[in-house]
Amino acid sequence: MKLKAIGAVMTTAVLCAATSAHAQDKYPNRPIELSVPYGAGGATDVMARKFATFLEKELGQTIVVHNRPGAQGTLQMSQLAKTRPDGYSLGVAGYNALTYTAQRMSRPPFTVDDFTYFGEIGTFSYGLVVPSKSGIRNMDDYIAASKQPQGITYGVTGAPNNIPYATLKKTTGGVFEEVNYKSGLEAATAAAGNHVESALQNPQDILPLVQSGQIRLIASMTDQRIAGYENVPTAREQGYDVQVYSSLGLAAPQGIPEDVRRVLQEATLKVLRNPDYVAFMKTQHMYVNQVDGPAFHQKLRDGYVSMGTFIKEMNIPMLN
């Protein structure tokens, strides 16, 4: 009887230990890190932090956001590619850093296939602004200024904001000098302070300064006018065939376990379908397309090909 009792106790202990170990192994059981490719306070940072709060609720775990700006959005992704693929190191993946900027490096630190993706978490809109004291009021004025001997300066965070300038330079003969900043807010503030003659940034970075009268919006640089500023035409409506496309995705290093991938994919899609998240994104002049991980990965692959063609056709120089 004693032997049976001891055996029963041992069996129970083993089962409890196994159950406890399984509970501890279940993902996620500790805080997750989310890296952002640009500085604090900018449009990408604001969006990423809001997305993280929604993802926390779906995963039931804390998400710690880190800003890792540098190298036009590629520094953060190169660091992410080297982290352990366990699902505890995630990153906001910029479409243009992966498809455009990396191609302009002689030794790209990563490829679009070095990561696992869980979805496209937001798509941007863009506006072109000048200091309020500037005499530039539309695209014709802007191009005329670029044809002066000194040309015109523009503040950006890298791609995709600088991509239209390759087209403008080739089609108009204007001179455009790029000045890089770590965040869109920095670039917009530089324009407000007359440190640069223009800036091409997201509405959430520029509109507060437009509303306060420090800078002037002269064109929407996407395919639709900016909400609240419908009186300002797009660049295409003003006769210049340029626009900016940019989106952000959620990524992890390639090689994460399949069960972890499924958890993150499901949680991401739940966030993208959440009406509160969609409503918030609209307040930021961003859009949610509910694109899952594999579809976003394919979009990046297609974009890499089209951007490669664009770089060759425009004779865009290498960065290093």
CA-based shape: globular
Specify the number of helices: 11
Order of helices and strands: HEHEHEHEEHEHEHEHEEHHEH
Output the CATH homologous superfamily of the largest domain.
Answer: Bordetella uptake gene, domain 1
| Cross-sheet strand order for the largest sheet | 2-1-3-10-4-11
Tally the structural domains. Answer: 2
C-alpha-based Rg, rounded:
23 Å
Uncertain runs: 5-23
The CATH C-level name of the largest domain is: Alpha Beta
Please describe the biggest sheet, giving its number of strands, its sense, and whether it closes into a barrel: 6 strands, mixed
How many DSSP-defined strands? 11
As for the CATH topology of the largest domain, it is D-Maltodextrin-Binding Protein, domain 2
Spatial gap, N to C terminus: 79 Å
Query: Given the helix and strand composition, which structural class is it?
Result: alpha/beta
Strand content: 15-25%
Mean residue pLDDT: 90
**Named CATH architecture of the largest domain:** 3-Layer(aba) Sandwich
Binned, the helix content reads 40-55%
Signal peptide: 1-23
Family: Belongs to the UPF0065 (bug) family.
Pfam family, one: TctC
Keywords: Signal
